[in-house]
Amino acid sequence: MSDDIVIQTRALSKVYRDFWGRQKVRALKPLDLEIHRGEVFGLLGPNGSGKTTTIKLILGLLFPTEGEAIVFGKRSTDVSKNERIGYLPEESYLYRFLNAEETLDFYGRLFDMPAATRSERVDSLIKMVGLDKARKRQLQEYSKGMTRRIGLAQALINDPELILLDEPTSGLDPIGTREMKDMILRLKSEGKTVVMCSHLLADVQDVCDRIAILHQGELKELGRVDTLLTVADVTQIRARNLSPECQNEIREVISRNHGELMEMDNPSTTLEELFLSIVRDSEARPGRRANVEPVTSDT
């Protein structure tokens, strides 16, 4: 596997069975994905589409029925990879009688971090997530948004190369949501790889480089956000310094009237419109599969 590829899944699938071994739910159909180093990757889908199952298979919390997931060149079931991963689950289960400093110090000890490094890391993360004034308060006094922030700090305590975020903006107000998105972009600028699940499509559109849309356990769409949202059969022209008489003219008229052509390209739809269109099409044509990008073989 190329060093540029952090996560690779090959025909990864998961079937949940009942007590007698009979198939109960096919949560994930054969999935082929490659997630590259340094990108923000969005995993989208309605409830029950297989997003959380995919994340748990990547983390090694579940065993695949078929196929495999490779993380940092190792099988997902190899626990040694976890020291390079940070994970923010949809619901953070933290010790509510501890304060922010004690919480992060506890998780730093689990990674066997030296005391001086741990103290510096705890202080910087608390400031990063905006909890400096609440660092001494017990977590049981935190609002949902504050709990989300300390959960992110806990996921970053080991300075991971790969961060998995499940609904990272859940419970945050508009300011907190913007700050969370800025933190994700900051992590990207530091060379981190971020994989996020979210139902808030505008948030994904703002920060993700590429997305995969799942529906009923099947990959329906995969690609760059800007490419998927481009409306290919419509041309959009933006210009200024044009008189009203020449506004309905085309490129030659703009030049003849000394106008400035500011932009001429394909307009974009929104991620929400793309998402709903794919889900509706999937329900109408359940056999349709995504045109997936090729999976790189081992080198």
UniProtKB/TrEMBL annotation:
<feature type="domain" description="ABC transporter">
    <location>
        <begin position="7"/>
        <end position="241"/>
    </location>
</feature>
<keyword id="KW-0547">Nucleotide-binding</keyword>
<dbReference type="InterPro" id="IPR027417">
    <property type="entry name" value="P-loop_NTPase"/>
</dbReference>
<dbReference type="InterPro" id="IPR051782">
    <property type="entry name" value="ABC_Transporter_VariousFunc"/>
</dbReference>
<protein>
    <submittedName>
        <fullName>Putative ABC transporter ATP-binding protein YxlF</fullName>
        <ecNumber>3.6.3.-</ecNumber>
    </submittedName>
</protein>
<dbReference type="Pfam" id="PF00005">
    <property type="entry name" value="ABC_tran"/>
</dbReference>
<keyword id="KW-0813">Transport</keyword>
<keyword id="KW-0067">ATP-binding</keyword>
<dbReference type="GO" id="GO:0005524">
    <property type="term" value="F:ATP binding"/>
</dbReference>
<dbReference type="GO" id="GO:0016887">
    <property type="term" value="F:ATP hydrolysis activity"/>
</dbReference>
<keyword id="KW-0378">Hydrolase</keyword>
<dbReference type="InterPro" id="IPR003593">
    <property type="entry name" value="AAA+_ATPase"/>
</dbReference>
<dbReference type="InterPro" id="IPR003439">
    <property type="entry name" value="ABC_transporter-like_ATP-bd"/>
</dbReference>
